[in-house]
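My current task is to audit a protein record that another person submitted. I need someone to confirm that the token line plausibly describes how this chain folds. Take the sequence as given and treat only the tokens as open to question. This is what I was given:
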Amino acid sequence: MKLRHEQLTTHLQQPLAPFYIISGEEALLVEETVAAIRKTAIQQGFTEREVHHINNHFKWDQLTVSAQSLSLFAEKKIIELRLPSGKPGTAGAKALQAYCQHLPEDTVTLLICNKLEGSTVKSKWLTQCEKAGVFLQTWPVPTHQLPQWLQLRAQNAGLHCEPKALQYLAQHVEGNLLAGAQEIEKLALCYGDQLITLADVEASIHHNSRYDIFTLVDTALSGQCEKALQILADVKHQGGECILLLWALTRELRQLYQMALTLPGNNVGQVLQQFKVWQKRKPIMQTALTRRTAKQWQQYLHQAAKIDPIIKGLAPGEPWAAMKALLFKVAR
């Protein structure tokens, strides 16, 4: 059956389904959904957990073996299948269909994917999996709903915030839910149950802003190569998240590629308006559009896509070195 994200809390008050498909393009929402199901599973006695990262070398018979084996100290098991592409291939599709036709007892299986294409959602294998369990798709929070999303998250953290403070935070994170969630956590540590004002949020955001990943991305897009590489070194030294930096950079590369495709026959101002670019970012995006072609932005996107599996340990390479190489090309 299909389940909406807002129905999850009520659903988790019941015995869990044997199979879940969780997908979405917003990593934070996907991972928090998985964490909520996992927590409930543990409370319901599923004490053993196995995680399988599925790539081209994954042998699907491992799934059957895993489901049939329990440790000496566990009676129930959680199996997590991480399939970012959402495309199991012919062998994987057959294996998943067969698995869902004979789901093991005392096992909860989670199939975790990025956003699924329409053809995948309608595929035979996914339809079979959905019939056997629950299909939950998470969706990005629309820009106009971001302040409300932040408010709910702040309330759940026990915070009291001025509306203007949350509006400013929403403008700063610009749709990046992970960055927004991290700012809420930071505010909770700094201010507790005090009333949080606009000035408090501004101070929190701009504290150590020299090492902010958004500053790094903007610096690279502006063509300041040496400065961008220095900030990258600072971000790494400060313990920054490479996956978050990749997310922020990829988002801008994708938008610049789409804008560059639209640019012929239009002036830059029209294109920026069409893509609803924030006023404060227009100079940066305009500079970037004049520096590169659509083909070059597309090449950078392809290079960025290769960094994701490196970060996740699914491909050889050092994440920060790969990120440095990409930023150098963007900024030089």
The first strand starts at residue 19 and ends at 23. The CA atoms of residues 257 and 296 lie 8 Å apart. The mean pLDDT is 87. The radius of gyration is 22 Å.
